[in-house]
Each structure stands twice: as structure tokens, then as C-alpha cells.
Write a sequence for this structure.
């Protein structure tokens, strides 16, 4: 048996546990979690009841009262221990991520060795000192960043452990407690990660629960949860916002995207193709900020379609446990069906499928990297978020027109401009309605993201930002302490 297969077997031999008040908590119900590479059940996952959520909230509130009194250096130390512990268990957790989510093992391990630790260590290095607003003869005024209380972290299925750490790190540094709810498609690695981290965190500080979508809805309506940090689709984001209104929760919403890339005609199609393919198909296209619509000048459309088809066709699709796999399966049946439907619709409406376009034989949700030329608005592949390995190419004639069509989406997560004239690229990028606009890169390049760069969307792609100092402040509330200095009592009332 290969080492990864061995690590997976060992991981699955242990029961999966929710963590409540620092210990395993038995549940009455459970549900099946599927392996998308085999379309068969991988393991049973415990599902908490509403009463267990209530208990978790009480425990988290109590743990938070102590945690907020811990010095910032004390909090940093816990976060650094969490980062090392996560990396220590990367073989076990990586094997679980690949088995429940599908991505290649190296990328799965990276959630525990680089991405997760980058969030924990990056935020641990940040500061939350009070700001002096005024200090004169009459008064001294300071602005303090106080914790919000208990944060509900609701996680999607594309990067389960990384997204969890990206929310926990700022929440904990700021002095909050958290209740984590992984996606019902990918709960296993997160539950196990939090089991492995139990003894480096105060009990109750992070309660890790699992259940179906209903658990998310209970959390957003819960009066004992003060903030929701949600990552997921735009429709669910709307439901989260509506449900949080009654208790006036603070919200960070990281929602879907339909990112446009605009290629200017001064570029070389063959040179760009591998970069664009990686930006579109990394994680089998299941990245919120993947390149999802590519605008190509009419003069370059055919050359670009050929070059992209060649680069995409070279990617190896397979089980993420195999070392030579570039793209794993889609993570679940629902997403597989969406991608099949969108590509079929594009074909029916005159799109030219240059490579891929037909699901691979199962079992498992394998879909080949697909390039669709002559795509246009009105095709579902262009108008909806595909969240999968199918990239539409849209012709344009004028840059102004391309910008207008790129901005015509209700979403605005990120976007990119590709050109040899970087000054022009920056000017065009500045006109894209999105939270991050890249020049000559998009999402998947190592230089594209960093824990210090605030990330989030405009329009229906979300509210608020994650990462960076701006992201940290989302987990705080401002308090101004205004002390009058003069000794005599104030005049009048
Ligand atoms: P989803 O919206 O279906 O689910 C996300 C989470 O919300 C899951 O944990 C789910 O159980 C929970 N949930 C479902 N219904 C709920 C409800 N009514 N109330 C509260 N919680 C509920 O999204 P998904 O399919 O898991 O993820 C894919 C989507 O996430 C894509 O649209 C993608 O673009 C987006 N995404 C965005 C970002 C970002 O940073 N902007 C990052 C990753 C994914």
C-alpha cells in the first residue's frame, strides 16, 4: 500500500468527532460523506442537534470571557502552536482532504503546511494596539479594538482546512471565540484537524460542529452568536444576511465570483496559455477567484483558443491520490451536474468546444478541462458561475466594450488584464468592478495572493474583506475611551 493510501486508511480507522468544550461529544445522528473520485461513501460524519449547538454557544461565550483577558502575546503563542500542530499532521489531514474533496494530494497537504499556517502566523504577527486620537490639555482619547464575542465560521467545500484557518486566525487574535461549521461535503479533515489541535487551545475557544445546511441556518439565527463569517455561494449569502438581520449580527460574506480576464491584443497567445489555464483550472476550477470568462480580441480569438486547448489538453485528470494527477474530480455530484449542464447549454447555443466537453467515464465526478470558443452572453456558461474546469472565450473588438461586458456581471470578486504594456494594463484593471484586479496574473500564480492583501468582493460577491489588517478589523469592534483631564467638574449640565 502506498504511503498516502496508508495514511488515509489510518485516518479513516478512527471515528470522526465533533469538538465541544475541548472534548469529543457523541451525537444522535450522522450522515455519509462521499469520495468524489469513487462516488462511494468514505465515512460517516457526526451531526449535532440544535441543543448541542446551544451548548456549544454557552461554552464558547464562557471561553471567550477568559480569552479576551489573555494578552495579545499569549494569543499569538496559541496561534503559533496551532500552526505547527497543523503542519505536523499534514499527512493525515492531506489524505482526508484529497479523499473527501478530490484535489491532488500535494495541494491538499499545502492547506496544512503552507496556507493554513500562513494565516495563523501571518495574523499572529499583526498588531492591535490602541490608537491615540487626541491628547491635549483637556482630554486624552484612545480608540480600542475590542473583540466582538462569538464568531460563527461557515465554510465551503473547496478549501476546507485553509478557509477554516483563514477565519480562525483573525478571530482568535482579536480575542473572540469561534464556532466552526464545515461543509457537509467536506467535514472530515476539519473535524480531525480540530481534534488534533484540542490540546493547544483553551477548551471551548473553538467549538467544531458538523451537520447539514440546517446547522448553518441555526447558527445565523442564533442570539448567542455575535458575528457570522461566511464563505460560500451568493444565494446562500443572501439567506445568511436575511437570517442574521433579526439579531443584527456583524457579517463578513465572501461569496461567488464570475471573474473576467481581458487579454489585450499585444500579447502572445502561446506564452499566456499555460498561465491562463492554471488560473482557470487550478483545483479543477473550484476556486472563487478562478478566471471564469476570458475576453479575447477578435484578431486573436482563434490563436488563443488553439493555444488554450493545447495547454488544457496536457493536464492529467485523475484520482488526487495518484502522484501524476494535475486535476482531481469535481468535488461532488451537484457541482458535476452544474458543469455538465453549462457546457451542454454553451454547445447548444453555438459555442465551439475546442477540448474536453464530455464527462469522463465514472465512477467518480471526473470532467476534463474544457475550452469553449465563440462564447457569448446569454450562454449559461458565461452568465452563471461554473466553478469547474470549463472556460468560455468571448470575442471583443474594443477595450472599452470588453470592460463594459466584464462589468456587466452582478458579481465582482476579482478580474485581470493581460498585456505587454503594464501601465495600460493597470489603467484597464482600475476600471474593473471587483475587489482584486490583477495584471498579467489571476488567482493561481504564487504572487497573486498573500495573507497581507485584503481579499473580498464588490456587488453580489460579498461584504467585507478577509486577510490583511482590514480583514483583522472585521473581527473587532471599535470603542473610544475619552477621558477628560481638567480637574474641575464640568460647567452646567
Ligand atoms: P454554499 O453556499 O452551498 O455552502 C457554503 C456553506 O454554507 C456550507 O457550509 C453550507 O452547509 C452552508 N449553508 C448552506 N445553506 C445555509 C443557510 N441557509 N444558512 C447558513 N449556512 C448555510 O457554497 P459551496 O457550494 O460550499 O461553495 C461554493 C461557492 O462558494 C461558490 O459560489 C464559490 O465562488 C464560493 N466561494 C467564495 C469564496 C470567497 O472567498 N469569496 C471562497 C470559496 C468559495
Amino acid at each position: 500500500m502506498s504511503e498516502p493510501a496508508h495514511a488515509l486508511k489510518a485516518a479513516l480507522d478512527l471515528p470522526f468527532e465533533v469538538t465541544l468544550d475541548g472534548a469529543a461529544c457523541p451525537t444522535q445522528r450522522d450522515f455519509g460523506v462521499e469520495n468524489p473520485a469513487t462516488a462511494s461513501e468514505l465515512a460517516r460524519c457526526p451531526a449535532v442537534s440544535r441543543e448541542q449547538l446551544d451548548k456549544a454557544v454557552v461554552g464558547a461565550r464562557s471561553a471567550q470571557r477568559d480569552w479576551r483577558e489573555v494578552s495579545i502575546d499569549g494569543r499569538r503563542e496559541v496561534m503559533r502552536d496551532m500552526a505547527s500542530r497543523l503542519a505536523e499532521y499534514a499527512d493525515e489531514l492531506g489524505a482526508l482532504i484529497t479523499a473527501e474533496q478530490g484535489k491532488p494530494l500535494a495541494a491538499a497537504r499545502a492547506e496544512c503546511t503552507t496556507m493554513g499556517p500562513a494565516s495563523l502566523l501571518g495574523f499572529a504577527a499583526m498588531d492591535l494596539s490602541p490608537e491615540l486620537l487626541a491628547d491635549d490639555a483637556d482630554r486624552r482619547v484612545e480608540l480600542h479594538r475590542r473583540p466582538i464575542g462569538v464568531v460563527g465560521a461557515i465554510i465551503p467545500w473547496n478549501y476546507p482546512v485553509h478557509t477554516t484557518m483563514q477565519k480562525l486566525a483573525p478571530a482568535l487574535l482579536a480575542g473572540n471565540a469561534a464556532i466552526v461549521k464545515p461543509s457537509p461535503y467536506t467535514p472530515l479533515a476539519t473535524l480531525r484537524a480540530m481534534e488534533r489541535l484540542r490540546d493547544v487551545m483553551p477548551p471551548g475557544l473553538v467549538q467544531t460542529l458538523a451537520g447539514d445546511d440546517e446547522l448553518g441556518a441555526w447558527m445565523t439565527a442564533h442570539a448567542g452568536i455575535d458575528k457570522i463569517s461566511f464563505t460560500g455561494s451568493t444565494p446562500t449569502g443572501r439567506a445568511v444576511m436575511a437570517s442574521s438581520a433579526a439579531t443584527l449580527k456583524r457579517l463578513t460574506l465572501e461569496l461567488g465570483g464570475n471573474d473576467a480576464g481581458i487579454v489585450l491584443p499585444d500579447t502572445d497567445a502561446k506564452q499566456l496559455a499555460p498561465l491562463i489555464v492554471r488560473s482557470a483550472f487550478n483545483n479543477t476550477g473550484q476556486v472563487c477567484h478562478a478566471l471564469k470568462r476570458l475576453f479575447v480580441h477578435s484578431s486573436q480569438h482563434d490563436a488563443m483558443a488553439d493555444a488554450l486547448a493545447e495547454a488544457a489538453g496536457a493536464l492529467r485528470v485523475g484520482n488526487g491520490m495518484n502522484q501524476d494527477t494535475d486535476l482531481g474530480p469535481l468535488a461532488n455530484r451537484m457541482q458535476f451536474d452544474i458543469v455538465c449542464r453549462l457546457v451542454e447549454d454553451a454547445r447548444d447555443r453555438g459555442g465551439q468546444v475546442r477540448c474536453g466537453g464530455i464527462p469522463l467515464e465514472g465512477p467518480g465526478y471526473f470532467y476534463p478541462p474544457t475550452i469553449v470558443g465563440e462564447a457569448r452572453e446569454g450562454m449559461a456558461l458565461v452568465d452563471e458561475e461554473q466553478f469547474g474546469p470549463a472556460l468560455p472565450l468571448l470575442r471583443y473588438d474594443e477595450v472599452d466594450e470588453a470592460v463594459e461586458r466584464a462589468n456587466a456581471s452582478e458579481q465582482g470578486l476579482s478580474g485581470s488584464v493581460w498585456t505587454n504594456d503594464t501601465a495600460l494594463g493597470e489603467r484597464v484593471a482600475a476600471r474593473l468592478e471587483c475587489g482584486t484586479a490583477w495584471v498579467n496574473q489571476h488567482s493561481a500564480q504564487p504572487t497573486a495572493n498573500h495573507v497581507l492583501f485584503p481579499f473580498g468582493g464588490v456587488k453580489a460577491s460579498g461584504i467585507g474583506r478577509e486577510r490583511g489588517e482590514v480583514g483583522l478589523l472585521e473581527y473587532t469592534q471599535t470603542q473610544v475611551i475619552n477621558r477628560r483631564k481638567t480637574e474641575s467638574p464640568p460647567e452646567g449640565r
